[in-house]
Structure formats: C-alpha cells, structure tokens
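SUBJECT: A protein chain and its fold
Encoding: whole-number codes for local backbone shapes
Chain under study, with its fold:
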Amino acid sequence: MSRNIRAVLSGAILLVACAACTDDGSSTSAATPEQFSSLETLAAVSESDDILADLPSAGSAAPARVVGEVRKGQERILAYVQGNKCGLVGASTTGPKKVYLHLVSGWPKDGEDSARPYSGGPYSIATGAGTGTTPSWASLSCSHSAMVISYQSEEVRPAGKPIGQAAFREKHGHPAELIIVIGSDRARAKILPEVAPSGATPVQAQ
C-alpha cells in the first residue's frame, strides 16, 4: 500500500509543478514572486512545541517554532520554522513511538535553481515516507514566505480545524490526501486555490 501512496503523491507533485506552465513551456503569473510576510513573522502554536523536544536540531541554533498544525484521527501533522528552514512532523497521539515522519527543507538560496510552481516561490522540496504502523507519505515545499504540504495516509477519519497559521483542503479517497498551506492570511488565501483540488472544501484556521 505504501507503493500506492508513493505513486499517487508523485503524480500529484508533477501535476502541481506543471500547473504554472503553458503548453509552450512559458510560465504563468504563478511564477512571479509574491510579496507575502516571511515565515519568521508567524505566531507560534505554543502548545505544540513539546513535540519538537526530541527532534534533531537541523543544524540551526535558532529555536524551532510550530506555526501550524492539522489533526486527523490519531495523526498530528505539524509545520515548524527553525531559522531559515521549514520542518514537517507527523506524530501519533497514541503509542510509544510518537514521531513517525520528519522532513526538513531549507529556504532556497539566491540564484538557486528552485521550483516556482505556485505563488510565494521559489520553493525547495523534500519528500519522504513515514515509519509508523499506518503507511504515510509527504512532500514539503519551503519558501521564505510559505510552506505547501501534501500528506497522504490510510487514516480515513476527516481532519479537524487547523491550528495556527494553517489552511487545508482534504481529498477523500484511498489513500486520503491533505493539501496544507502555511503562511500569512494573504499567502494562504492566494496559494491554497492554486495547489488544492477544486472539488475539495477549503478549511482555514479560526
């Protein structure tokens, strides 16, 4: 089943990456950098910071701050900022091994050949599979002003209201997929319709 998750997510990444291109290969307006607030300015979700205590420091002396979270059944998907890096954590609400997924991606450097598939870019991308009892797979796209997360697992229960600076759309299926955008109010409102399936209902943090 993990192979199915990987195949479906890989296709989703390719579709998103192509969404900003026309048939002749020219880029659309999504390739134009948008001026959104930096991730560094986002307020932290203080009650979620304890989950980061046992994680590697990611080579940064800056403190890691959770800025958004979505809970789905017994799964917690947390997005954090640490200096010039974005992080994604998948954690279980039960069992001895709470953290089953951890991705880190740095902000793209000036002049770096990075993807601009949607507003707020350029983005650098990290992908990986979870190690929990339930197969999961995720991609984390990181820019100075936004994170875009694609998360798939076999957890069939719907996601609850997002916490912090997060918005998502949920695509039900097998596996189910969450498209999560982390950023300022304006960034989330602009980017989420670009990356999420049109048939899914957007859910914003309250």
